[in-house]
Design brief:
With about 150 residues, the chain is of the alpha+beta class. The chain has four helices and five strands.
C-alpha cells in the first residue's frame, strides 16, 4: 500500500469515497457539489488530502482530509481531521492506520504541533482506531457547534 498526497488530478478517484463518507453520516451524495468542495479545498490549499492506493493495481483504497488550523492558546499550528473513509473491501487491512501515520509524519515535518479529530459518539470503531494511534479524549475543552 502506498500513501500519497492528492492534488486536483485525483478528484475523480477521491470524490466517490468522499461521497460515501458523507452518506455514512446521513448526508445526501451531491456529487457535483462534493467534487467542487474538494477541488476548492485543494486549489486554495485549504486541505491536505491523503490517498491510500494498492501497490499492485493503483486502486484507491481510502482517503483522509485534514484542514489546517491555529491555536491562539498554544501559538501553534494544528491539523484537524475532517474526513476519513476506507472502501469496504479494504477494511481491516490497516488502511486508515497507514494514512493517519503518514499524516503524523507529514505534520511533524511541517512543524504542526497537534492533530485533532472529531467523530460521531456512536462510531466506536473510529474511537478505537484513534486511541490506538495515540489520540486521547480532550478532558480540557468541551466543543460546541452552532448551525448557521
Amino acid at each position: 500500500m502506498r500513501i500519497v498526497q492528492a492534488d486536483t488530478s485525483r478528484l475523480d478517484e477521491v470524490t466517490p469515497l468522499f461521497i460515501k463518507y458523507r452518506e455514512f453520516y446521513g448526508h445526501l451524495p451531491k456529487p457535483e457539489a462534493s467534487r467542487r468542495f474538494l477541488e476548492d479545498r485543494l486549489k486554495n490549499e485549504q486541505a491536505v488530502i491523503l490517498v491510500a492506493e494498492d501497490d499492485d493495481t493503483g486502486k484507491v483504497l481510502g482517503f483522509c482530509q485534514f484542514i489546517p488550523s491555529f491555536s491562539a492558546l498554544t501559538l501553534s499550528a494544528s491539523w484537524v481531521l475532517k474526513g476519513i473513509y476506507v472502501v469496504e473491501e479494504a477494511r481491516r487491512q490497516l488502511v486508515a492506520d497507514n494514512m493517519l501515520n503518514q499524516a503524523k509524519v507529514m505534520a511533524r515535518a511541517e512543524g504542526i504541533q497537534r492533530m485533532t479529530v472529531m467523530t460521531g459518539e456512536t462510531n466506536t470503531t473510529a474511537h478505537s482506531l484513534y486511541r490506538s494511534l495515540g489520540f486521547v479524549d480532550d478532558a480540557e475543552f468541551h466543543y460546541f457547534s452552532l448551525k448557521l
